[in-house]
């Protein structure tokens, strides 16, 4: 049995040579001390080596001081005086090796001790106190944030706003990483795990988010159970983007309509389609394919919205392409951003777009439409025209009169043929204001209501909605509200009210069966839009909306032709009682 020496460093077995302090210290005897507290056993029964250790192994006094601090006061520090001198020498070397092992720890302990010892009583320094004041820092942060917010309201991106020699841009690699990150967070949360190969290894997420010419074996999204629909939609996208060889008898419009129909009728497929398009746009090596992909996104963004889960990630993905000039992606992406905002607030369309509407939607970023746009944008398109209101308003109202709308039963209430309305709309969007070939006054009447309803902002701004509801029966207040509208809005509102007065004549009502109440009920939602999303509130306010428009039709007086063509300031007046 080998002999063992017991000391503060622990049991030293000649066979194992284990010097770990944790093996010897009794947990019950460990005592937590302050850094500056000295052990009561310091200097007691210290063993003094008989050999000059310092000449063979360099040691600093701090090492032994650290060793003494690590010692436990309850430990037996006596040494067996019957040990041979060679064992004492062996123990001394062992102790020196322990000191070397803890040298780095002792230096950090020492620096920590010095740091604590440097803390003294507060120094009277008002300047430093003011600089470290949390209230001053808080106010400074608020000012900086306010400055940033104010700047962002003017320009969304500092880098994109710079021009001239000082213009800077992100490196291409960094921009690609940012584009990847915008959709990457959504992917990690909602994407399904895709596997491949004999050993069924998971496909990396960045690969699932990148363009591919291959087919997919399962839907990208975890919650999507429509396997066949997802695979079919991805195949259609690849065919439309020319990423896959087309069959000989491939009909692009029918395939496009099938894609849109799937998104309209099956809500769970909408995010799947959006994500599939984003994947094919990410790291796509072909310019033609990129252009086609953004055109597809232009059509989808006017057909159905993404879910709330995908909405923010999709917006960021699109916005990060606003400065990409290649393949005119900047124009296309800005158009998609505007249409996404609108479709998210209004919801999906009720029917699939016709081939003519699909073609028009793909051209819309470069040929702005007169439908669904702000009034100032519409007026900018016809700046060379003499009309003071949008040309489409005078064209459609005249078409209703020309097609004998004043003798048509249920005019404005009976809808026109859907295909005919779409055809007339496409004709107008292409700049052809011609009603030749139409004999039903309900077609232009339906399109007129659609144009008013489809404006990006309501004809009467939302800020005046409550005033209209509160003063629905007050003719003076109602006329005053109309006269307070912006010029273009005011002229259109006055023109439309005078147009509806043509159908409120008793002799006309005998043919149309549409009295003032019916006219107000049909057109009130086109003049006013309730800002609330509560169905009860919308239903309750509808009767006040109708009463407001009925008051205007009954009591307001204005010259219709002056509203449309004269440069003079046009305002409405209250009818003089006869």
UniProtKB/TrEMBL annotation:
<dbReference type="InterPro" id="IPR000198">
    <property type="entry name" value="RhoGAP_dom"/>
</dbReference>
<dbReference type="InterPro" id="IPR038185">
    <property type="entry name" value="MyTH4_dom_sf"/>
</dbReference>
<feature type="domain" description="MyTH4">
    <location>
        <begin position="211"/>
        <end position="362"/>
    </location>
</feature>
<dbReference type="GO" id="GO:0005737">
    <property type="term" value="C:cytoplasm"/>
</dbReference>
<protein>
    <submittedName>
        <fullName>Uncharacterized protein</fullName>
    </submittedName>
</protein>
<dbReference type="GO" id="GO:0005856">
    <property type="term" value="C:cytoskeleton"/>
</dbReference>
<dbReference type="GO" id="GO:0007165">
    <property type="term" value="P:signal transduction"/>
</dbReference>
<dbReference type="InterPro" id="IPR008936">
    <property type="entry name" value="Rho_GTPase_activation_prot"/>
</dbReference>
<feature type="domain" description="Rho-GAP">
    <location>
        <begin position="373"/>
        <end position="560"/>
    </location>
</feature>
<dbReference type="Pfam" id="PF00620">
    <property type="entry name" value="RhoGAP"/>
</dbReference>
<dbReference type="GO" id="GO:0005096">
    <property type="term" value="F:GTPase activator activity"/>
</dbReference>
<dbReference type="Pfam" id="PF00784">
    <property type="entry name" value="MyTH4"/>
</dbReference>
<dbReference type="InterPro" id="IPR000857">
    <property type="entry name" value="MyTH4_dom"/>
</dbReference>
């Amino acid at each position: 049995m080998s002999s063992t020496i017991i000391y503060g460093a622990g049991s030293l077995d000649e066979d194992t040579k284990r010097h770990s302090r944790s093996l010897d210290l009794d947990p019950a005897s460990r005592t937590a001390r302050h850094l500056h507290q000295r052990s009561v056993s310091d200097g007691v029964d210290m063993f003094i080596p008989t050999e000059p250790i310092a000449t063979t192994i360099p040691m600093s006094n701090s090492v032994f001081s650290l060793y003494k601090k690590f010692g436990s006061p309850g430990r037996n520090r006596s040494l067996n005086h019957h040990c041979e001198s060679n064992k004492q020498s062996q123990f001394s070397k062992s102790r020196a090796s322990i000191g070397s092992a803890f040298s780095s720890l002792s230096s950090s302990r020492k620096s920590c001790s010095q740091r604590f010892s440097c803390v003294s009583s507060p120094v009277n320094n008002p300047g430093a106190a003011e600089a470290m004041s949390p209230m001053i820092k808080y106010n400074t942060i608020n000012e900086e944030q306010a400055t940033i917010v104010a700047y962002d309201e003017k320009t969304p991106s500092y880098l994109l706003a710079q021009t001239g020699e000082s213009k800077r841009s992100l490196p291409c690699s960094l921009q690609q990483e940012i584009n990847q990150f915008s959709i990457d967070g959504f992917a990690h949360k909602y994407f399904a795990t895709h596997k491949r190969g004999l050993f069924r290894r998971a496909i990396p997420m960045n690969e699932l988010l990148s363009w591919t010419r291959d087919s997919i074996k399962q839907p990208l999204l975890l919650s999507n159970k429509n396997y066949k629909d997802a695979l079919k939609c991805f195949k259609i996208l690849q065919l439309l983007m020319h990423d896959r060889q087309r069959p000989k008898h491939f009909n692009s419009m029918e395939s496009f309509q099938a894609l849109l129909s799937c998104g309209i009728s099956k809500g769970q497929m909408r995010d799947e389609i959006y994500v599939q398009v984003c994947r094919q746009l990410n790291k796509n090596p072909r310019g033609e394919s990129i252009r086609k992909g953004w055109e597809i996104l232009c059509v989808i963004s006017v057909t159905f919205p993404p879910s709330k889960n995908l909405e923010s990630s999709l917006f960021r993905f699109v916005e990060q392409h606003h400065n990409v000039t290649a393949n005119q992606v900047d124009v296309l992406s800005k158009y998609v951003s505007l249409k996404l905002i609108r479709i998210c607030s209004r919801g999906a369309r009720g029917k699939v777009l016709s081939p003519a509407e699909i073609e028009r939607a793909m051209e819309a970023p470069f040929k702005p439409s007169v439908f669904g746009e702000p009034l100032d944008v519409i007026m900018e398109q016809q700046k060379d025209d003499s009309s003071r209101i949008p040309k489409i308003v005078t064209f459609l109202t005249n078409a209703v009169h020309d097609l004998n709308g004043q003798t048509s039963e249920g005019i404005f209430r009976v809808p026109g043929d859907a295909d005919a309305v779409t055809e007339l709309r496409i004709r107008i969007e292409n700049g052809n204001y011609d009603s030749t070939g139409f004999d039903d006054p309900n077609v232009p009447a339906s399109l007129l209501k659609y144009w008013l309803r489809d404006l990006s902002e309501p004809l009467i701004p939302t800020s005046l909605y409550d005033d209209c509801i509160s003063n629905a029966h007050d003719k003076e207040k109602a006329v005053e509200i109309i006269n307070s509208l912006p010029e273009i809005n005011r002229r259109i509102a006055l023109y439309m009210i005078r147009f509806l007065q043509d159908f409120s004549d008793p002799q006309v009502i005998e043919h149309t069966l549409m009295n003032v109440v019916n006219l107000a009920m049909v057109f009130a939602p086109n003049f006013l839009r309730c800002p609330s999303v509560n169905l009860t509130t919308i239903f309750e306010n509808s009767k006040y909306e109708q009463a407001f428009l009925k008051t205007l039709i009954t009591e307001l007086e204005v010259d219709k032709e002056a509203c449309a063509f004269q440069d003079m300031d046009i305002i409405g007046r209250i009818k003089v009682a006869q």
